[in-house]
Model the fold of this input.
Amino acid sequence: MDQRQHPVGSGFGPKSEPAEVLDDVDLHGVTAVVTGGYSGIGIETTRALAERGATVFVPVRSPEKAEEALSAVEGDVRRSAMDLADLGSVRRFADEVSGAVSHLDLLITNAGVMATPEGRVGPGWETQFGINHMGHFALTTGLLSTLRAAEAPRVVALSSVAHKRNGIRWDDIQFSDGTYDKWVAYAQSKTANALFARHLSPLLEEDGGRAYSVHPGGILTPLQRHLSLEEEVALGWRREDGEINPAVQDLFKSTTQGCSTTLWAATSPQLQGLGGVYCEDTDVAAAVTSDTPRWLGVAPHATNDEAAARLWSLSETLLADA
Done:
């Protein structure tokens, strides 16, 4: 386990708001990409960055929905078509951004799907692995030269505490054996997000940059759209009448609070020298121990450098063959 995986005493907490995190941050002149930046915690991330002066590129899969959602966001927000499940559109978006700016300071890979029915995207990749990891891998590698042109670029990959359930299924990543489990698939994709940032960070550090993964916390957003009320009741999130279970009310965050860890990882000087770490509750997460609550901490398989290098190499091969 990485010895750097322990809180640094950021001064913030689980329910810190973006205004607190960015209180003294000026982002004029900063360019950013936020995937999923027009819904849930993504639009709050876009809003917070744009209000402080950043130019934010938001890739959109649903133009009408994005136009309506982003119309109330003040600042320089630019929309362009992209679907993480369509590699051609990912490449076109990366080329468009690279042609529009001289450098990219921030890439926030916020978009994703959760607990989807079994499906395939791209050349046959399992849906959650394909969208949550491979789509973002293709986008990041397509933007890598533009990131490296920035003075101190940062990439923030949204992972989840769900990664603790399992690591990468090296023998059958695509669930070809007929044993598909939507939660195992989701956990694998979230482990992949953490390992992605883990390996990317030293590549960016050659140019003064770094990458981080974050768990945004428990938040009710459109990410849960594939879950029935019965499933949310079984998980303990809601009561049978649809109301949030009081037992988890204190643990859940608002959508604004849910983007604070992302914003902190994207801007905080407290993370100097800590590239590749996994963050939660607006601080660096602690490594799991036998006493760690199930909704906190980072598992060893998500901070393993050998696994991170193996996944990166495999992802390059998968992308080259797509």
Observations:
- The mean pLDDT is 93.
